[in-house]
Specification:
alpha/beta, 2 domains, Aspartate Aminotransferase, domain 2, transferase, four-stranded mixed β-sheet, 14 helices, single chain, 16 strands
Length: 432
């Protein structure tokens, strides 16, 4: 064990990681393109974009230069009573590519806080008008973050159990599995027609952390249409799906009806720096435009609209909106669809699916599909040993690589997955 790893073990508490019984983390010294390089010289293909944030490859020179240039001019300034050009430019550019109904940008610093802002914005929208609407609808299996509001609107389970007494009440409808869409719609309708629902929050078209579960666009459109008829604010959590992951710039671009509020993060800065954004319509802002100070949206963060982060996000948009990036996303989708045909009937595979640049499937195991399926304990180290970073969601294996991944690297990842399926090692041989 290196001195650095010893120091890590003594000083750092890692996310989603038990304090006992886990192997030591890998020491990453540098990264370039889709590759991570460890301190012992190993190269690992980042096939999950480091928790879905990296769009254009690691250490991209255009983003790095934008950060460095900004750091030499203005590294940070309080965003209450002050503003700066990188934040203004970014807000204008985001509003240009989001649906036309979006008209204002509120900055925060990650996906969970973007969700918190959205929830508070929706509740206070009604409060400012003297309207009593205090309920939220979410979809079972949802994940919207780990702060308390975000946990409240997410799936209740082992992750939230210690905090359940402190979470506010939320009405959940079933996840709309294929063939159950009408049942879910009727559940939703019953809740909405009571007239006391303030907001409906959802991950549009695909749920990420619950296993890359895809559901009906037509159903979501129908649910949104009903919600907006009853003045229910529709909140699209596009933290994972935004910036091209589903093939469109935003998953909501696939829908006829448009959300009232968007939550954005992850790919927003190309994965270079932490940032969150919540956008909303003019209608929502109207409830806050008042001479009454108490109708102000009293929310903020120390690093709101950090200039270096805004510069990184602007640089990421420069890259995202190029023809080359669009072609790379189309190429990824084509390659995933071809690989899907190779594995969808494999005895080890069930429910294989592709959405844009995302490919996912469930490993056939003796236990049900779940985040806590023990398959993860041997899948992760197996692929690391082959030089590929895949972080399975239980027995759900997925690929969501940076758009710049080469065909050669993609072929290697596909072949590594195929080799595993054709000759899976015994779990005991890959456990730490």
């Amino acid at each position: 064990m290196s001195d650095w790893i010893k120091k890590d073990a003594e000083a750092i508490w890692h996310p989603f990681t038990p304090l006992r019984g886990m192997e030591n983390p890998l020491m990453i010294e540098r990264a370039e393109g889709v590759n991570l390089y460890t301190s012992d010289g190993a190269k690992i293909i980042d096939a999950i974009s480091s928790w879905w944030v990296n769009l254009h490859g690691h250490s991209h020179p255009h983003i790095a230069k934008a950060i460095a240039d900004q750091a030499s001019k203005l590294e940070h300034v309080i965003f209450a009573g002050f503003t700066h050009e990188p934040a203004i430019r970014l807000a204008e550019r985001l509003l240009e590519i989001l649906p036309e109904n979006q008209s204002k940008v509120f900055y925060s610093d990650n996906g969970s806080t973007a969700t918190e802002v959205a929830i508070k914005m929706a509740f206070q929208y009604f409060y400012n008008q003297g309207v009593s609407k205090k309920k939220i609808i979410a979809i079972d299996g949802a994940y919207h973050g780990d702060t308390f509001g975000a946990m409240s609107v997410g799936e209740r389970g082992p992750f939230t159990e210690p905090f359940d007494p402190y979470l506010f009440d939320v009405s959940f409808v079933d996840f709309p599995e294929e063939g159950k869409e009408e049942k879910v719609y009727q559940q939703f309708r019953t809740l909405v027609e009571k007239g006391d629902v303030a907001a409906f929050i959802f991950e549009p078209i695909i749920q990420g952390a619950s296993g890359m579960r895809v559901y009906s666009m037509a159903l979501l459109d129908k649910m949104m249409a009903l919600a907006q008829t009853y003045d229910v604010i529709c909140i699209a959590d596009e933290v994972m799906t935004g910036f091209g992951r589903t093939g469109k710039l935003f998953a909501s671009d696939c829908l006829i009806n448009k959300p009232d509020v968007f939550c954005l993060s992850k790919g927003l800065s190309g994965g270079a720096m932490a940032m969150g954004v919540t956008t909303c319509t003019e209608k929502i802002q109207a409830a806050y435009r008042s001479n009454d100070l108490m109708k102000t949206f009293f929310h903020g963060h120390s690093f709101t609209a950090n200039p270096m982060t805004c510069a990184a996000a602007n640089a990421s948009l420069d890259l995202l909106l190029t023809k080359e990036s669009e072609e790379n996303r189309l190429r990824l989708n084509d390659r995933h669809l071809s690989f899907l045909k190779m594995i969808e009937n494999h005895s080890m595979v069930r429910n294989a699916r592709v959405l844009g640049t995302i490919l996912a499937f469930e490993m056939n195991t003796e236990k049900d599909t779940s985040y806590f399926n023990e398959a993860r304990h041997y899948l992760y180290p197996y692929f690391i040993s082959k030089g590929v970073l895949l972080r399975p969601l239980g027995n759900v294996l997925y690929l969501i690589p940076p758009y710049v991944i080469s065909d050669e690297d993609l072929n290697y990842v596909y072949q590594t997955v195929l080799d595993f399926l054709n000759n899976p090692p015994k779990p005991e041989s890959t456990k730490g």
